[in-house]
Every structure is written in C-alpha cells, then in structure tokens.
Amino acid sequence: MKVSEQWLREWVSPQLSTQGIADQITMAGLEVDAVEPVAQAFTGIVVAEVVEKSQHPDADKLNVCQVEDGSGERVQVVCGAPNVAVGQRIPFAQVGAVLPGDFKIKKAKLRGVESRGMICSASEIGLEEGKSEGILVLPDDAPVGTDIREYLDLDDHTIEVDLTPNRGDCLSVKGMAREVGVLNRLPLTPPKAVEVPAVHDELFEVRVEDFERCPRYIGRLIKNVNVAAETPTWMVERLRRSGVRSIDPVVDVTNYVMLELGQPLHAFDRSNLHGAVIVRLARQGEELVLLDGQTVKLKPTTLVIADENGPLALAGIMGGEHSGVSAETRDIFLEGAYFTPLAVAGQARNYGLHTDASHRFERGVDPELTHAAIERATELLLSICGGQPGPLNEAVSDVHLPAPREVTLRAGRLASALSKQLDAAEVAEILERLGMAVESIEDGWTVKVPSWRFDISIEEDLIEEVARIHGYNKLPVRRPAMRMALKADGESRSPLSRLRRHMVARGYQEAITYSFVAPELQRTLLPDAVSPVLANPISADLSVMRASLFPGLVRALEHNLNRQQTRVRLFESGLVFRGELDSLEQLPMFGALVCGARYPEGWSGGRDKVDFFDLKGDLESLLEVAGDMESWRFEPGSHPALHPGQCARILHCGEEAGWIGTLHPAVKAALGLKADAMLFEVRLDALSQGHIPAFKPLSRFPEVRRDLAFVIDETLPIEALRDVVRGEAGEWLTEVGLFDVYQGKGVTEGHKSVALGLTWQHPSRTLNDEEINQLVDAIVTTAQQRLNAELRA
Description:
By secondary structure, this protein is of the alpha+beta class. It has 21 helices and 41 strands. The protein has 6 domains: 2-38 and 157-184, Phenylalanyl-tRNA Synthetase, Chain B, domain 1, CATH 3.30.56; 43-151, CATH 2.40.50.140; 206-396, Phenylalanyl-tRNA Synthetase, Chain B, domain 3 (3-Layer(bba) Sandwich), CATH 3.50.40; 405-474, Phenylalanyl-tRNA Synthetase, Chain B, domain 1 (2-Layer Sandwich); 491-691, Bira Bifunctional Protein, Domain 2 (BirA Bifunctional Protein, domain 2, 2-Layer Sandwich), CATH 3.30.930.10; 704-791, 2-Layer Sandwich (Alpha-Beta Plaits). The strands form 11 sheets. Strands 28-31-32-36-35-34-33 form a 7-stranded mixed sheet, with helices on both faces. Helix 5 (233-241) crosses helix 6. The longest helix is centred in the last third of the chain and has 19 residues, at 769-787. Its main location: cytoplasm. This is Phenylalanine--tRNA ligase beta subunit.
C-alpha cells in the first residue's frame, strides 16, 4: 500500500517528520517498507505558456517556439515534441536549471537556431519512468511563472506500507489516517460527506441471486457524462503517487475513491447493458473477455456480474472489455458492492489475476462503506465530467451481512499477557480511539467491534490492539521460566536440535523445502500415496501436500546437480501428510540424502562414490544419539522409490518407522538424474525416543570370547541369526559382532558363511569353559532348528 504523505496529512497531521510518521506506523505493527520522494531533485523549472510556434527552417521534426515564463520577456526554445501547440501551459526549464541526473540547461544552437531552455516531458522531470511520448501539458489555469515543484506539490513523499493480510482495513488513505490518528490522539478531518440528489428518477434494475456471497449491491445510473473531460492534475498526481496510472476520468474517479476510502467501484457503459444487472454464479461453458484483453472460461464457483445476455465482469476482480467505459460512452451505471472475503478469496488466482479490487475484497471491505463510496464517486464524477445522477438502487440482505461482534476482554488476562497492569481508563480510551464501543463490566470490558475490523473476533485480538497502541517498547521484558528437573521414569527425548547438530557434524547440510510438491514428482516417487490436493495452490508445481520428505530432497538434489554441485549431503525435518482431509495424518519425519563422492575432494582422499552402507552408517550413528540402538532393526523390503536390491524397512520396537535405500533406477531415469542417490526417512517421534544413560560398574574379571561361523541361506537376514544368539547366549553376553561374510569355494551355492564374535563377561567372577560351552551348544542347536544353519568347520 502506497500513500502520499500530503494526502495523509489532509486527513490527520501529527507534529512529526516524514520519518517520524513512518517509524510510528512500523512500531504499531504496520511495517513501512520504503519512504521515497514523489519526484527526483531538480531546480529552475517553471510553468510557462507557448505563445508562438513555427517550423524549424532546417529540420522537419523540430519546432521553434516562443514561450512566456513569467520573466516579462519571451524566450525562444527549439522543441522536438510532436504534441507541442500554441496556448499550452507547460513545464519549462530555464537556462541554469538542473534536471534530474544533474543535467544542466545551457544556451545552445540546434541546427543553427538559438534555444534558451527546454520544454520538459513528464519523464524529464522525474514524474514517469522510461521515456514519455511528448511534453507534459498542464491545465489551462496553471499560473505562469510558478515553480513547477510548488504547482504540483512535488515536495512530498510516498510511504509504502507492507500490510499483513489481516489488516485490510488499512488499504486506504482513510484506514492509514485512522491508525495515525489513534497513535497521536488526533481527530480525522475527512472530506465533507455529500449526498448527491437525484436529477432523474430512472432506476436500473438490480437482481442479486446469491446474497450469501454478495449481501449488498448498490447501483446508480448517471446520464450524459462527458468521458472526454480531462482528469484534474491533482487527482492524476495522487493516483501516480499511489502507484496507479491515470486512464480516463471515470476510471480515475473509481480508482481514487478506492484509494481514499478502501471501497472498490466499477462503472459500466449503460448502452452495453441488456436488461437487469444480475449478481450470480457463473454457468457451465460461459466465457468472458476481460479488460486486459484475455478471454477466460468461467468456473461454476466464480461469482459474476451479468445481464440478460451473459457475464459482464468477475465480481470483485475485474470488469469485462465489452461493457466497460469507452470514448463513446454517454451514460454510465456506477456500481459498488460488498462481496464476502470467501466469495473472492482465491478466485483471482484461479484465472492468473491479481487486482487492487481482489486484493481488498479478499481481506475484507467494510460492509457499511458502500453508500459513502458511491456518493463520493458521484460527487467527483459530476465535478469533472458533468452528468445527471439518478437515485441509488440497492439490493441488500441484512441476514447475510456480517453480524455485529462483541468480544469480552478480561482485565486479569490482559495484565497476564502484557506482564503489566494498565489503568482501566487507558484501556477503555485505547479501544474507543480504535472505533470500538466499550462497556465496563465487573472483571473487564465488553467491546463492540467496528464493521471495518475483520481481524478482531477473540480476546487475544483485543490484547494485541491494546499492546500495540500502548506501545510494544513500553512493555516489560520477561524471560520464560524453564523447569530443568529430570523425568522420574528415566526416559528422555532427544531434542531435534541435537539430531540436527549431529548431522551437520557428519558433513550434512540442512535443507528446508516446501510442504507442497508437484503432483507428477510425488506420483513418480510414491505412486500409491494419498495426500490433500490444494484448492488454491501457489503454483501448479506446488499443488499437492507432500506424503514423504523424498520429493523435496530429490528436487533439492536436482537443483544442486544442475549447478555443478556433484557432492551433495542433505537432511531435512518436517511434517508429511497422508490421507484425505477427513482422515488426515500429519507425521513429523526426519530424512537425509547423499550423492557423489564419499569424501570431499583432496590429495589424500579417495574418489570412491558413496553407497548404501555409508548412508546406513550415518543413520545408525543418528539412532545412537538417543542411546537406544537395540530397539531398532533393518529388514529387507520393497519401496516404489527405492532400488529393489538396496532397500530396507526401518523398524522401531517392531513397528515400521521409515525406509532407507538407493534411488530406483527407473525413478532416476524418469527424473533425468545422472548420479546415484541414497536416501532415508524416519519418523521423528520414534527417533526422538531414548533413555538417559545410567552408570554400570565395570567388571574386574576377564572376558571370554568364542568365534562361530555359520553357513546359512544367502537370503536369510544376518539379524535373524543375531537374534538367535542373543536369545540363547544368556544374561552375561556383552557383545555380538559380525566380522566376516563369505561366499565361494567351500560354501554350498546359494548359501553364505557368516562369522560372529561372541563376548561374555561376568560382573563378579570368572566364567569357566563348561558354562561357555553349554551356551555355545545351545546357540548352535537352536540356530540349526530355527534357521537350518550349520556350524562351519
């Protein structure tokens, strides 16, 4: 939102500098992005009149003009602008003037003819970007000799405010003035409200078929409008300083009222309306040519303004080309409406549009503002274009208009939230200055919310209002208390920050990707995944909520590979979404991806590529952070995104907690990746569960070790053999280590030899051979019975 400081000060003018106003607005929660002068620095340019014009003797495209600049004598100047004419009032740079860019005007000869000065265009004095088509022509009543900065009030600033979506009430000069007035305890001085009397009694029929989306619609027929009239310079300048280009007086007035009051308006050419004006939903197959020339196919969920022949405009967004005001227009139908935010929200984006009107309606326009805006626009139109206004024709449904809201604010809750006890009179005064009706009750206040504040509905909203108007910098600073006591059950949770630091220490970088992904990418990686589809996505590539961290990590890998980053190690934590909306499951996950060389490039490092076991090692080290590695297992599995021979299901306490593996070759080819990638994701809740380490006395007695080599089926997981060992080795077993896997000569085909090292140690005595031999025999017997394992000689 851009607002002219001069325009703002007409409504309310505190004793503050420009920067002071900007700082005050920012501290009140309305962040100021920029404060810029409305025109660049220049001197020596005055209002002048062209009194003579003749053709240059040696140049077809140049004219020799005589101008009166208030100095008492005529000044000769050569001008090449095609629109220069006798009688015009123009900005004239006298000899010695300095134009924007430090360009100095001197006496010169152009093709042998003396020129003392320059007739300026809008761009040459910094009022337009780019190059203007011709000179700037001023109104006929512009006083000759007046400094152009003074005449156009160019000693002004534009204050650009970055409003949050909940503060749609500030999308106007009136809204910003309301805030400045509240902050400085100053009353507003708005333009005098005028009710324009009807000159004729013709009513143009208005019919609303969808009051739920459009509770109020007002129209007025204005006859014999002079569309060829010129928009006043003051209005053109105010529009420019607000970032709006002047088009014609009718459009300029509707834009001006929108910027001044916050109510979007639209004008139709009466001759292009057939029958009644109807507010309804679009019908299947209807199309509309918009003002920007594009043709859109209307969706049945879109509210339109139509007549008996078809749609005329997208309600609250943009008008149609064929019903708009043109140079031939004589009678106009001026409309204003209150469209509910939900009726407009997302509709503009569905058609690839974003307009000033949709921006306001999506955030909420004051439903009580429509009458005043129509009257203000009528007054301005009559003063510029003339015409005969008719009576207002209103279609309204009080049932569907927003109901008045009452919110209770408790004094105790306010004091607790602000950590400060405010005087009751001050709280009531702040709320009343904000336009609220306040009634004191036993333990606080009952507040009636004004119609323009859509963002206030609960007690916390009122607390925020009191805090920001009182001043955030006046509130005490308090730090939250933290209880450091350990849990009695001895269980703890590893914080996410610890897991992240661990991954960084192992050479990974954290990735933060969108929770929305492209549907094609998700189908490629997870063809059976079900997750919500967004009704109004940011873009087509971000239209589905992710069912896994894999799509985001793969897209980040692709981004890095495309920028010659061949060694990629990324991790991410975040929510994934599985199921439809009515049964949506939101799971916090932790994932990682590796690709490229095992070690960073260096003279002492090898050039081996990272593989599945590198990533598995990193994951196992992450599981160790929780101190409960024994509750985790890996078993073979099948995942559509992972290589069938290099894929494992991750189990925690016997339940599936995630997946790890190498990206499937078919998926890699479909995505156009030329490098192998390994990735995993694990449920964060399972990853965060652990135990606090407890001290265990070291045994003073010797360890006993036995090495056993079993021949088992090559498809049998080694973990199954380790489970048998743990189950039969007794309570004094301290370690089961795998130190060899062999296939080849001496081992039956289809089998493998697995060698395990078993270590026992008793806490209070030395174990003897007889005890160990009994345990070994039990292990061998059970392995043979359950796994058909044979002890290798």
